């Protein structure tokens, strides 16, 4: 167990945005089984502590890599790029965000807007996210500034997806 490994190395995956999420899950379960505290019940206190620390590291790595946005941010972090809280984005993109936010607010305030309207909105936003993920993936290898910019956009779109999911839950009385 090497605590200096990056999250991709823990799961023996290449440092790439597009990963096989099923393979990630399979490797996660195998690693968790190998370090599960129950396997160390009769071990020394130090071995028990290491088991818990390693299990925690595996969980953090898995949680980071399984989510596309957190995986993108992590890839940037591996290249010593940290994401700013208030980035400057182009006005065209910001206007698109305002329009999408207003569209969601309109769906929320209109009582007659059914789930099909909300689903169509969510699909529109998911399509934008997919485009940005492709942009990030392509830019990672040759234009890290463009990749960073794509992550900032992905963060905005992710907030819209979360808000749409909340509205859907509210509409479905979850």
Keywords:
mainly alpha, Helix Hairpins, Monooxygenase, 7 helices
Layout of strands and helices, then pairs:
Elements lengths: L6 H4 L10 H15 L9 H22 L1 H11 L12 H19 L5 H26 L3 H28 L3
Helix pairs in contact: 2-3, 3-4, 4-7, 5-6, 5-7, 6-7
CATH fold field value of the largest domain: Monooxygenase
Strand content: under 5%
| SSE sequence, one letter per element | HHHHHHH
Number of strands: 0
Gyration radius (Cα, Å) is 20 Å
Supply the helix-strand structural class. mainly alpha
Distance between the termini: 42 Å
Count of the separate structural domains:
2
Largest sheet: none
Report the top-level CATH class of the largest domain. Mainly Alpha
Note the total helix count.
7
Low confidence ranges: none
CATH superfamily of the largest domain: HscB, C-terminal domain
* CATH architecture title of the largest domain: Up-down Bundle
Mean pLDDT: 92
**Coarse shape:** globular
Helix fraction, binned, reads: over 70%
């Amino acid at each position: 167990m090497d605590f200096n490994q990056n999250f991709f190395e823990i799961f023996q995956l290449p440092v790439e945005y597009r990963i096989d999420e099923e393979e990630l899950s399979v490797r996660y379960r195998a690693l968790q089984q190998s370090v599960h505290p129950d396997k160390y019940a009769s071990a020394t206190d130090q071995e028990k502590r290491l088991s818990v620390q390693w299990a925690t590291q595996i969980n953090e790595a898995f949680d980071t890599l399984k989510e596309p946005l957190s995986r993108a941010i992590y890839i940037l972090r591996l290249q010593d790029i940290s994401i700013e809280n208030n980035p400057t984005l182009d006005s065209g993109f910001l206007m698109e965000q305002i329009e999408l936010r207003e569209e969601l607010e309109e769906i929320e305030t209109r009582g007659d807007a059914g789930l099909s309207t909300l689903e169509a909105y969510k699909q529109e936003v998911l399509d934008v996210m997919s485009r940005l993920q492709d942009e990030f993936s392509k830019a990672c290898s040759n234009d890290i500034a463009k990749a960073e910019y794509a992550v900032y956009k992905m963060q905005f779109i992710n907030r819209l997806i979360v808000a749409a999911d909340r509205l859907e839950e509210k509409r479905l009385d979850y």
